[in-house]
Design brief:
Shape: globular
CATH architecture of the largest domain: Beta Barrel
Helix content: under 10%
Number of strands: 13
Order of helices and strands: HEEEEEEEEEEEEEH
Distance between the termini: 16 Å
Strand order of the largest sheet: 8-9-10-13-12-11
Largest sheet: 6 strands, antiparallel, barrel
CATH class of the largest domain: Mainly Beta
Strand content: 25-35%
Number of domains: 2
Structural class: mainly beta
Amino acid sequence: MKGAALSLALAVMAGSAMAQKPLPRSELPGLGENDPRRPVEVSRAPWTSLGRVQTEVGGRCTGTLVAPRLVLTAAHCLVARTGKFVQPASVHFLLGYDRGRAAAQARVVDFRVGEGFVLGVPSPVSADWAVLLLEAPLRAPVLPVWAGRPPERTPLVLGGYQQDMPERLLADTGCRIIGAANGAVTHDCAGTRGASGAPLLAEIGGRWQVMGVASRVRRDIALGEAAGTEGPRRVLQGQ
């Protein structure tokens, strides 16, 4: 899938966010009086590698720069309301997006989704990942992708551009991996719509690493599932 290289103004991009009525705070996972999420500074690690994945038809998710031209996100973020994949050229990555500004941006020229992700039918969480190929490399820190099955109880952080505050990066910095099986990771991080595609991040040996790709969350409690990293690693190793 290829598309012409063309940059859109940030102001236009910000105005194309999905027009959805936010859920009541009482219905969002982990929120209300005990909401653990807080805004974080996109100029500090590990958030310097995150950005907003946005389509020209109104979709908005979160992505991670894992190589100068590669962004990791969720496959379902690339599905239009028609039930088909969006064209790659209609997808943009806004690195370090914060209240209308971004450290860098690039259009997508191609993408690859997880094997087993099938349009029109429920797909396994393990297949809900995508690697986006950018039109040009971005000069920014990249995050490595974890090899192997992540250990249970590993401390995590999860940050994304979420529906109740889409102009800032919100993060739960005090959650953990609950379990991992069949290519999927269960966690107790709080998140809402818009956090899809965000990385589950763990600091191991003084280095931040991607442990999974956020796929879906419960609405009533802070509990979610993420795609594991085995599939994305195979794609990255083939580059």
